[in-house]
Amino acid sequence: MTDTQVVIAGAGPTGLMLACELRLAGVDVLVLERLPEPRTVESRAGGLHIRTLETLDQRGLLDRFLERGPVKQGVHFSALPLDVSDVTTRHPYVLVVGQCEVERLLAERAAEVGARLRRGAELVSFTQEETGVTVELADGARVRADYLVGCDGGRSTVRKLAGIEFPGTPATMTALLGDVELAEPPAADIFQERREHGIFSVLSFGPNWYRVLTSEFDHVADRDEPVTPDTLRKTLLKIAGTDFGMHSPRWLSRHGDAARQADRYRAGRVLLAGDAAHIHFPAGGQGMNTGMQDAVNLGWKLAAVIRGQTSDLLLDTYQAERHPVAARVLQNTRAQTALWRVDDHTSALREVLGDLIGIDEVRLRLAGMITATDIRYPMDGTDDLLGRRIPDLDLHDGRVYEHLHRARAVLLNLAGLPQLHAVVTGWADRVDLVNARPTRSAGLDADAVLVRPDGHIAWITRTGRRPDLDALRTALTTWLGPAGRHAETAE
To answer: Stretch 72-90: mean pLDDT, rounded?
Structure first.
């Protein structure tokens, strides 16, 4: 029997991102992937939003991703464009990169930091006791772990075996996706054009490679019914009136607008993340991004528990913070699919919403929701910045995000407050104290800020005010464990 600290079921973007996060904290990780080889063509997700790009920047990984695809102003709400050029970020765009490439880059990074990945390894059962989880594989092998995390997709075996309910709304439509070649492509990309019988898109994804998508309302196909080139061709002809000379498919897929969410993200020593915890129609490109952000929220918390720095009650904050985020994604994707319907009433509603998006407050509210830049986790305290993401301030020694590369908490001493040194001493093994003044253009009204490893603000003292050091100690204890409780050896 193999022993490890964490078993992750699933080597998609969520599972691999989680493996990277855990390894940065020194936790031993084994990723089990059912498929024997990496995906090379199946890229349902096709882009990374602002908050995910910021997260990759916080880990020093962004440059390798930016090399793999173009950036564009591609944020939208039900195909109504949302300009994000004035969002406060260094990355006001969408990075167009396929899920397969994301998985390849994250697998490369996971190997660099020492995560183990076993392909062709299918989890078929597990048992958990008070002290750990025993996982059994299809080939009869067994693995013993402290924790098991299901990142194994919408039909998650881990979720089902854990007895976690998956309530939600059933599909009301059928969407087809095909990565194909076109003999008669359109002159320019067509993005979600509404016609009498449904909607379709034709997007250029590279030389001789187009992504064709169709959606038919009030028609729900059997989810196990195979998708053939003829199926896609007939649907495209019905909706668009042409098949654009479609041939040589690389990949074909079908999905609906079912929206479901696990009623709990944790059952003892078993946790869920990504599509195993929530599924929805891929409206606005939020799915892969939400899963990767799940992983970053969970990783440092699970590592702190495993390393003995804090109690496992910290894991309860994972659901408290991430369940509402995914619930909102499910709701906004339901709204977006409703707005795609092709009747006159929906057309009128789209026209009204399009006018409202011209109001900056409306546009930025929707953009913040789609890009996850408006997330505010619940925190004790009244300051509006508590729980929000830290801006990537320019400091005299670099940028804030550069100080988060090690996935440790950071106490930014922006005003040189001497009393912070004595407070943070008990957490020196978990917190990096950064004495660096911001540049004049930094734009944050604060003398000091405690930033969690995931980049969210846990304590702040405003410029010129007396710092509440008791509140700082409470925040340090809440998120990082009691002072002086040093980490146990991880390996």
So the answer is: 94
